[in-house]
Amino acid sequence: MSGKKERNKERREKRLQEISLLRTIPYSDHQRWWSQETVAVVTGANRGIGFEIARQLAGHGLTVILTSRNISVGIEATKALQEGGFSYDVHQLDILDGESISAFVEWIKQKYGGIDILVNNAGVNYNLGFDNSVEFARQVVDTNYYGTKNMIKAMIPVMKPSAAGARIVNVSSRLGRLNGRRNRIQDATLREKLTNLETLSEELIGRTVSRFLQQVEDETWQSGGWPQTFTDYSVSKLAVNAYTRLVAKELCDRPQGEKIYINCYCPGWVKTAMTGWAGNISPEVAADTGVWLSLLSDQAITGKFFAERREINF
Ligand code: NDP
């Protein structure tokens, strides 16, 4: 291994050790704004990173609602979590199915009155290793971007007013960075429009993903200047990141007591079904930043992108 690679590896291992340590430090009483009455919803929580986020949030004493598109699988996952001694609730939720979302919202209203935290974790990716097929591009964009957006729109009206503010955390990916050194959209004007909050709009994000999907259909996407790695997935997460900033801007005028903070994060490359268990970190470590963002006591943080508890550029 070259000197540079070795130094990078050492730095990464040190950082992972720091995060493991941070995870074990209990929050002090003055930081703890939540209680068992605080309700957190996690999408796609039947396995992988979502399952871990649910487990860790319950470990901090919140009421966690694990959601799963297949209810039997969700119930099994909940049973496994209950063995840890914490209490969970479970409900069916397919983020692509309007009726499933409506039924979930009604159930939340009746049983809990509202929620405090929404973790949009559910997602799909159909490529592994060096593959870059766009066979399932529509499914990827629909689930990762439109599914996340569906949930944000449906849940904002049931987010409870509180002094600490409600929170939305979107599990995203560095692959969707607009201005990263690699894997970015080639069109500098489009990048600028998506970066600038004055020009960023839901319509622009929608137009961008639709153009990509149209090019997939026309088989011209390869010369379209899109990110080169896991193209469909990167486009979908780029849209999630842009939408996070947009919603943060729209929500920032809410009065004190009705604040909602929204951020996104990249969990790293994680040993889950999504990577064929080829990642380099465990779901437990990957969940950490999502849990931390859900529980932040610094209320001013919104519209940001994080990795390993550190802010990174979009
Ligand atoms: P998994 O494949 O293990 O889990 C994905 C979860 O999303 C499953 O519970 C799955 O349900 C659920 N899901 C998919 N589609 C829907 C839907 N329409 N409605 C409801 N739930 C759905 O993946 P990970 O745990 O690795 O991924 C979790 C998140 O982390 C995703 O958003 C992913 O993009 C992101 N991420 C993951 C990385 C990694 O290295 N693993 C890297 C960067 C980001 P079901 O079991 O029914 O399929």
Q: How do you describe this structure in short?
A:
With 314 residues, the protein is of the alpha/beta class. The protein has nine helices and eight strands.
Features:
314 residues, alpha/beta, Rossmann fold, eight-stranded mixed β-sheet, 12% strand, globular, binds NADPH dihydro-nicotinamide-adenine-dinucleotide phosphate, SDR_fam, oxidoreductase activity, acting on the CH-OH group of donors, NAD or NADP as acceptor, NAD(P)-bd_dom_sf
> What is the residue-averaged pLDDT?
94
Terminal-residue CA separation: 31 Å
- Report Rg: 19 Å
Helix content: 40-55%
- Give me the CATH architecture of the domain at 36-128 and 141-177 and 241-312, please: 3-Layer(aba) Sandwich
From the spread of the alpha carbons, the general shape counts as globular
Number of DSSP helices? 9
At the fourth level of CATH, the homologous superfamily of the domain at 36-128 and 141-177 and 241-312 is NAD(P)-binding Rossmann-like Domain
- Classify the fold: give the CATH topology of the domain at 36-128 and 141-177 and 241-312: Rossmann fold
**Small-molecule binders:** NADPH dihydro-nicotinamide-adenine-dinucleotide phosphate
For the sheet with most strands, the description reads: 8 strands, mixed
N-to-C SSE string, H for helix and E for strand: HEHEHEHEHEHHHEHEE
Pfam family, one: adh_short
GO molecular function: oxidoreductase activity, acting on the CH-OH group of donors, NAD or NADP as acceptor
Protein name: Short-chain dehydrogenase/reductase
InterPro entries: CBR1-like, NAD(P)-bd_dom_sf, SDR_fam
